[in-house]
């Protein structure tokens, strides 16, 4: 399914909306116009059959006003520069939403990692560091996992970086295995963070968990922990999908059963359904008559073609950029609450920040401390964003951009604006 959407143009429109609500110096818009650094490389690796194969790879550092840039590396066949630039742009605002001392970046390799052997995957991961080594580092740019990359890949990358540098440098990347300097609580932090965001907005959104039906698109790392947490809280999960398709039951599903099935390496489209269950496509899942829709897979899945078919009253963006700008405007006009990605999935990068702090200090925290700090940050920021929405009478996404942009703008202005420098 290829959709021709210039994701970055759509991403920029969100910022333009927020700008209208703020009195910003000209410098702010100028500073945020283009990515600061945008690099592509060819990763040429030897495959197990002896052949040499080239993979296109990218790293985009969008803005570093608030600190070293931060953002994951994605291994996916649809990775391209437009996508990586948009993701780096979103990271810039995501780190600022949580007041983290980071800018925003993203990386990606155009590859289907499922087609690689473990040894090929390791070579590709190390080749990524070989190519981008001069641009990354604990005080320059700090990668992390994203779609189809995981803790083991982060461990290989940390090891490759440390080898080149000639010293142990765990803080150059986050999301590592615990034994290699990872943080407790990092693996489930994105899903848990989304759960904290939902918890803190439940009353405002008039959500009563026991009477709320939910459909979740995607069953990756973030969705897996999110789904367990909302199931335990009593939400009625009626549909879950992976990249192949999903399972639906109006009576509700047991996500633990589906997760166990997936863990064996099977696809949900082959799930042995019972009488009251149906196999549905990913498109059908989005259009179900439910209360809460959770797109947790890839970007641009709700667009001009299906926006009018969405029936959910609340959309929680666990994925990055699942709703296009055009669809977003329509949904807001229909009084649908879209809880934006830069808030909803900020738990991952927040726990990454904790990992970076622990690596630098050489002192490691208990899981309870990670969860407590994560909850505090996400609850506080969610409520601040809700208040901005009320005060400015705007939608939640615009409020989140106003909130994060104010922080970036303050830092830009504190370095001196045009007004300051042109004073006689
Ligand atoms: N890839 C995740 C995201 O999109 C995590 C980034 C990070 O931890 O730096 O937020």
Question: What's a quick, concise take on this entry?
Answer:
This protein has about 425 residues and is an alpha/beta fold. It contains 15 helices and 13 strands. A hairpin with a 5-residue loop joins β1 (about 35-45) and β2.
Write up what this structure looks like.
- The chain has helices at residues 7-19, 26-31, 81-97, 118-132, 151-165, 189-201, 221-233, 255-263, 282-286, 325-333, 341-344, 347-361, 367-392, 396-414, 418-421, and strands at 37-46, 52-63, 69-70, 73-76, 103-110, 141-142, 213-217, 236-242, 245-248, 278-280, 292-295, 314-316, 337-339.
- With 424 residues, the protein is α/β, with parallel strands linked by helices.
- It has a domain at 35-180: Leucine Dehydrogenase, chain A, domain 1 (Rossmann fold, 3-Layer(aba) Sandwich), CATH 3.40.50.10860.
- The radius of gyration is 21 Å and the shape is globular.
- Bound molecules: glutamic acid (GLU).
């Amino acid at each position: 399914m290829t959709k021709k959407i210039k994701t970055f143009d759509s991403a920029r429109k969100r910022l333009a909306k927020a700008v209208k609500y703020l009195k910003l110096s000209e410098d702010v818009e100028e500073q945020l116009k283009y990515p600061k650094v945008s690099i592509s490389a060819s990763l040429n690796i030897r495959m197990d059959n002896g052949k040499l194969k080239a993979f296109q790879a990218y790293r985009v550092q969008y803005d570093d006003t608030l600190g070293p840039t931060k953002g994951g590396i994605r291994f996916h066949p649809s990775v391209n520069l437009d996508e990586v630039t948009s993701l780096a742009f979103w990271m810039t605002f995501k780190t600022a939403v949580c007041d983290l001392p980071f800018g925003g970046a993203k990386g990606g390799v155009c590859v289907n990692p499922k087609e690689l052997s473990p040894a090929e995957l390791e070579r590709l991961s190390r080749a990524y560091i070989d190519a981008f080594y001069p641009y990354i580092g604990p005080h320059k740019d700090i990668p992390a996992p994203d779609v189809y990359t995981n803790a083991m890949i982060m461990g290989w990358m940390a090891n490759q970086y440390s080898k080149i540098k000639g010293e142990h440098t765990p803080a150059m990347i986050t999301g590592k295995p615990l034994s290699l300097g990872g943080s407790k609580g990092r693996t489930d932090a994105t899903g848990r963070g989304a759960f904290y965001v939902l918890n803190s907005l439940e009353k405002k959104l008039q959500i009563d968990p026991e009477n709320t039906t939910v459909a979740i698109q995607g069953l990756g790392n973030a969705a897996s922990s999110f789904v367990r947490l909302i199931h335990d809280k009593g939400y009625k999960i009626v549909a879950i999908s992976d990249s192949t398709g999903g399972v639906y039951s109006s009576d509700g599903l047991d996500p633990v059963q589906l997760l166990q099935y997936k863990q064996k390496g099977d696809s949900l489209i082959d799930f042995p359904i019972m009488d009251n269950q149906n196999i549905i496509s990913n498109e059908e899942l989005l259009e179900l008559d439910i209360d809460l829709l959770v797109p947790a897979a890839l970007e641009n899945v709700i667009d001009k073609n299906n926006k009018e078919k969405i029936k959910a009253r609340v959309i929680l963006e666990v994925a990055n950029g699942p709703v296009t700008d055009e669809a977003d405007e329509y949904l807001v006009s229909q009084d649908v609450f879209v809880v934006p990605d830069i808030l909803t999935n900020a738990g991952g990068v927040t726990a990454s920040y904790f990992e970076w702090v622990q690596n630098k200090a050489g002192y490691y925290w208990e899981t309870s401390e990670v969860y407590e700090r994560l909850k505090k940050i996400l609850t506080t920021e969610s409520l601040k964003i809700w208040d901005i929405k009320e005060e400015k009478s705007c939608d939640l996404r615009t409020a989140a951009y106003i909130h994060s942009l104010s922080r970036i703008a303050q830092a830009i202005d504190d370095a001196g604006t045009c007004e300051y420098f042109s004073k006689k």
